[in-house]
Design brief:
The protein is α+β, with helices and mostly antiparallel strands. The chain contains eleven helices and twelve strands. The N and C termini lie far apart (48 Å).
Amino acid sequence: MYAFTLEQPQTLSDAKRLVGAGAQALAGGQTLIASLKQRLAQPGALVDLRAVPELRGVRREGNALVIGAMTRHEEVAGHADVKASIPGLAALAGQIGDRQVRAMGTMGGSVANNDPAACYPSAVLALGATIVTDRREIAADAFFQGMYATALEPGELITAIRFPIPKKAAYAKFRQPASRFALVGVFVAQTDAGARVAVTGAGNGVFRHAGLEAALSKSFTPEAVAGVTVDAGECNGDLHASAEYRAHLVRVQTQRAVAMANGH
């Protein structure tokens, strides 16, 4: 580690002022703290967002759930409104990392970081959520822009994420056993406009799969997925799995997610 200034604002306005002046926002710290230890990131000032009440909590707004950016994974997993309205999102949160990670990691931090194997981006994209910042609102389809890249501008803070409540939704995750990140994770959602399918862990970032969405929009069943081709060229290969194996897992995990969404 090295010397830096730590600010702990109590209000959103103070947090915005500090981050706008060039300080680095600190959410749950599950990625940033490790980067600081390895000197991969060396900000001169950190802004700890934990004490900002406007960034926490879950509330129902019409046919949507609004979840504050600093709401921790364990809070999402256990919240009665999330479990009742979007049980697939609660189940996803309960599978992130281990108990220690879930007690510290936050939804906003995960989405802003956009790790290509993180779980939350798949839910945000599949559910067609809206990322609310201190400056504007960004549709999920425009937010994720590749490996660790998002539409956020310098100094812009995620304040909440608004999730439309789907007819059905579920998440199936094939874990990398050491890190517990998704080797391949698939979130499926049945909405009034059709099916949405978002894949994490398989490529350079979370992505939707048009072929799977078309098949599931016609028939939201595991059998509908069987004939869909998943191109290995869209997937990464590494020491954990080949691109071909990841492509196979995308189809398998989609079938599992649909079965779970249908109550099986």
